[in-house]
Task: structure prediction
Amino acid sequence: MTKILLSYNIDNNSPYYIGTTKPTITPNTQIENGDDYNSYIIEVFNHCGTHVDAPRHFISGAKEISKYDIGELSFDNPLIIECKKSPGKLITVKDIETTDLTGFDCILFRTGLEKYREENLNMYLTQNPGVSPETIHWIRKNHQNIKCIGIDCISMARYDDAEIAKKTHITAFKIDESYGEPLLFIEDMKLEEVGSDQTINNLIIVPWQIKGIDSAPCTVIADLE
Ligand SMILES: [Zn+2]
Result:
């Protein structure tokens, strides 16, 4: 078994959703400047880098990320679903209905867009596939064991389609009698290091421990077979 991270470091050049705030990591005291010790000031939008979206992101008064205990952020049966999509296309029910999702508690869409994160940032930020609201509905209706969905894109929703983006998130987060627990989303994941012949034994999301915010940047630890 090998432990790896399915999350990225944050630095001054980390991708951030267009229209939001760029991360800045600024040297504060520095030994090379004559200070006694090194320290930094970190300013990061809470949806920057690999991060976990909790229901409070789109629903006022819903559960915020710091209210999840670590048991609710640990998944014993994750599955990577290869879902190569053309830029800007939506992941639909058709793409996943033939996959046997029985028993899985977390699914990770590997769209392949991750390769543009380094080589073509504009493509990564504006051409990502998204997950359709109908797909989220279908998952919540038919697979209530699934508690978390991750993706190797900047967002679970495609760029510049605010209406669908809102629907995708609200369908994931709303309380509905015919659904199970609200979902969590992990966005901007690092999935390329998991070999196609490898399975993930378990996965733990460790969000920044900050009270009062909807969602948070996170570290994602996976145990590979
Ligand atoms: Zn987000």
In short: The first helix runs from residue 93 to 96.
